[in-house]
Design a protein that fits this description.
This protein folds into three domains: 189 residues, Rossmann fold; 214 residues, Dimethylsulfoxide Reductase, domain 2 (3-Layer(aba) Sandwich); 116 residues, Barwin-like endoglucanases (Beta Barrel), CATH 2.40.40. Helix content is 28%, strand content 18%. It is built from 23 helices and 29 strands. Helix 9 runs parallel beside helix 14. It binds ligand MGD (2 copies), iron/sulfur cluster and molybdenum atom (MO). Iron/sulfur cluster binds next to loops.
């Protein structure tokens, strides 16, 4: 028996550390959370408790495969790694020679957020000179908006929420998406008397278990925040000393918020003016007060406005002065600072990429007639865009192109893998090395391979080493071993990781970054252009946006059938799945076995829909057939369908992203705008 340290690879803020015990035959026989890890304390979430089932699933892809049927039909034959790599490289060379390297594109996202496997292909595709995938479908808009106000993304250690006495979970479903923060710091704060408020159009498990649920209209957060600022300034509840010393643009902000009396915001948000007043006063008079936000709010064409307005609130009341007060969100930058990410990134002197495409718009990129050259060689890894990218039907139209050669590196036969010409088998976290940063905690973890790769599975890093060798690329950075890369990333010399070595991580499994009493902007010195907390942003003004926080309505959707679609669709995460992962591993009876759309009793009655009816949700982008769940989970005019489900889960083979447009936030840099409206009718 031997025990190995590891950590969860998923795009989840908790980054739990674990231990795997392997028997003499090399099989993982015991799997548990690492009890010494301060954030996880040995408890894995319900999804990950079943990770060994994922590793040993009979549905794993264990050998390279070549397509034998139509694209999407899921018919494949087994081939060898040599055949697979030869074919990929022959096609790659041909594409580069005939159409140029820009016809080549990677699509890589959040299947693992480890530093090795996530960034494994960056240097290779830079060497090819491929079209670059830019943007993000997770957090870019929110980060940009917070940045424009405070100059920082990491502004509070999430664990300091324990010290808060008023916690607003603003568009984040903490109990489901950030389970250890909920069961840890937030629960401890509540025991000490903290009030927890959830601001969410959906009565999520978080909202249902909070002290106060503000169930506003989707995309109306900026109006709510501006009205709160109206009340705070009107009633003199702002922190004038903090404002005078540390902020920029207060007078302009005070003038702006005069336009947002609570009555006006009530009409936009659907929240009573009296409730807005009460919220504003409670927030401004209970210290320390913290706002926590992740991605819920950013998902609209006006998402940047929402996050920007919300990010102004803590500056107005000087919430950062005290630990436990301020704005808690992604803790990203400390990791980028601490580790030498250059080990995984293209060399600084690499020629600039001549073309980029937005990650959130795969379908558009693959079908755009103006793409010259069009993408004809695509490699998808760490991602399942047929399920997770907006405008599913357009993604499929693109993936179906006969002149497109597609490679998918996967653990399972996903909806995306079915469109591949070649499928490569990928290892799981039990089978490869990984250095796991965390975007929700101060902890880093080492993941050691505990078992041999299953079947012929290979790690992402190994695939790119082999591709590099076959392409004749001799650059040293393309051929480093995983262990060598981890050691180099740890050799940055940054004070955050002083004393953290490969050996110390091997011994303990995890380490805390040396960030001390983390309160980087509590004493001012905001890393903004002005050095102040910017209620007024010249950066926004220069980019043609309103420099002050403002509310703009989200895009009305051209419904394409002669009338405006009346129902707003929210597509967020589901408790039992991690993005599209685990949907294929669900057990009957142990979790939601089929997708359901949550609809309010009034909206259902108006359409003659009763609970349990099979309904069609539709708009100009697609149509999804699911069961209706009539409840008070959503307010009138809003429906909710988790985005995680695969196509096979619905009776007509389309899932939530068949209904989402592939627009971007009006800020242009940043994430998707899922401004989606639908109509619903009974089927059958
Ligand atoms: N169980 C589980 N955990 C996960 C994931 C998962 O799939 N499942 N995914 C992981 C990933 S990749 C991420 S990025 C994080 C994200 O973590 P969260 O940001 O917490 O996740 P979401 O569920 O996308 O969105 C949060 C909430 O925003 C609400 N919301 C939607 N529109 C609005 C709006 O206009 N205003 C407001 N105020 N709220 C709105 C949604 O109803 C939802 O409850 O979770 C991670 N953790
Ligand atoms: N409508 C709507 N759409 C959304 C969202 C939403 O809230 N609403 N949320 C968005 C968000 S926040 C995110 S982060 C994205 C996530 O979108 P994706 O990045 O596509 O995430 P996953 O669904 O987790 O798919 C990752 C795939 O990578 C595979 N994988 C895991 N580990 C490895 C590995 O080591 N190597 C290889 N080669 N493959 C591996 C998994 O088997 C899985 O199929 O979805 C976004 N899409
Ligand atoms: S998905 Fe999140 S909560 Fe679950 S084990 Fe992984 S890091 Fe922990
Ligand atoms: Mo995400």
């Amino acid at each position: 028996m031997k025990t190995f340290h590891g950590a969860c690879p998923h795009d989840c803020p908790d980054t739990c550390a674990w231990q795997v015990t392997v028997d003499d035959e090399g099989r993982a026989v015991k799997f548990e959370g690492n009890k010494s890890h301060p954030f996880t304390q040995g408890a894995l979430c319900s999804k990950l408790k079943r990770y060994p089932e994922r590793v040993y699933s009979e549905n794993r892809i264990l050998h390279p495969l070549r397509r034998t049927g139509a694209k999407g039909a899921g018919l494949f034959e087994r081939i060898s790694w040599d055949e697979a790599l030869d074919e990929m490289v022959a096609r790659l060379k041909q594409t580069m020679a005939e159409d140029g390297p820009l016809a080549v594109m990677p699509y890589n996202f959040a299947g693992t957020i480890g530093m090795l496997q996530r960034y494994a292909g960056e240097q290779f595709f830079a060497r090819v000179g491929a079209t670059e995938m830019l943007g993000d479908i997770c957090g870019a808009t929110a980060c940009d908006a917070m940045f424009s106000v405070t100059g920082a993304i990491d502004q509070m250690d999430a664990e300091d929420l324990e010290r808060s006495r008023f916690i607003i979970l603003w568009g984040t479903n903490t109990a489901a998406t950030n389970v250890h923060l909920w069961s840890g710091a937030i629960t401890r704060a509540r025991k000490a008397g903290a009030i927890v408020v959830s601001i969410d159009p959906i009565k999520t498990s978080t909202a249902a278990h909070s002290d106060w649920h503000i169930q506003l209209n989707p995309g109306s957060d900026a109006a709510l925040a501006l009205a709160m600022m109206h009340v705070i300034i009107r009633d003199g509840l702002h922190d004038q000393a903090f404002i005078d010393q540390h902020t920029l643009g207060f007078d302009a902000l005070a003038k702006r918020v005069k336009d947002y009396p609570p009555e006006y915001a009530a009409a936009i948000t659907g929240i009573d003016a009296a409730e807005i007043e009460k919220l504003a006063r409670a927030y401004a008079t209970t210290a320390p007060a913290a706002i926590r936000l992740l991605v819920g709010m950013e998902r609209y064409s006006n998402g940047h406005n929402g996050v920007r307005a919300v990010a102004c609130l803590p500056g107005l009341i000087g919430a950062f002065r005290q630990r436990g007060g301020g704005l808690s969100s992604f803790m990203l930058m400390m990791f980028f600072a601490a580790f030498d990410y250059g080990v995984m990134m293209p060399p600084r002197d690499a020629p600039p990429r001549a073309r980029s495409a937005h990650l959130a718009q795969l379908g558009r990129t693959l079908t755009d007639p103006d793409m010259d050259p069009p993408i004809t060689w695509l490699m998808v890894y760490n991602a399942n865009p047929v399920v997770t990218a907006a405008n599913q039907n357009l993604t499929i139209e693109g993936m179906q192109r006969e002149d497109l050669f597609t490679v998918v590196h996967e653990q399972f036969m996903t909806d995306t893998a079915k469109y591949a010409d070649i499928i490569l088998p990928a290892t799981t976290q039990f089978e490869h090395y990984e250095l796991m940063p965390s975007w929700g905690t101060r902890y880093v973890a080492l993941n050691e391979p505990a078992i041999e790769p299953q079947g012929e599975a290979l790690a992402n890093t190994e695939v790119f080493r082999r591709l590099s060798a076959r392409m004749g690329y001799t650059d040293a950075c393309l051929h480093r071993s995983d262990e060598e890369r981890i050691r180099l990333m740890l050799a940055s010399g940054h004070p955050y990781i002083e004393g953290i070595t490969f050996e110390s991580l091997q011994r303990d499994g995890w380490a805390a970054l040396n960030i001390g009493d983390f309160n980087p902007i509590g004493e001012g010195n905001m890393p903004t252009p002005s050095g102040k907390y910017e209620f007024f942003s010249q950066t926004y003004a220069d980019a043609g946006h309103d420099p002050l926080p403002t509310y703009e309505p989200i895009d009305a959707q051209d419904f394409g059938r002669g009338h405006a679609a009346p129902l707003h669709l929210v597509t967020a995460k589901a408790n039992h799945f991690l993005n599209s992962e685990y949907v294929n591993l669900r057990h009957r009876g142990t979790q939601n076995h089929q997708p359901a759309v949550a609809i309010s009793p009034g909206d259902a009655a108006a359409r003659n829909i009763v609970d349990g009816d099979m309904v069609s949700m539709f708009n100009r982008y697609g149509e999804v057939h699911v069961v209706a769940s009539v409840s008070d989970m959503t307010r009138a005019g809003v429906v909710y369908l988790p985005f995680n489900w695969w196509r096979e889960s619905t009776s007509n083979g389309q899932s939530a992203n068949a209904l989402t447009p592939d627009g971007l936030s009006r800020r242009q840099i940043g994430s998707n705008a899922f401004d989606a409206h639908v109509e619903i009718k009974k089927v059958g």
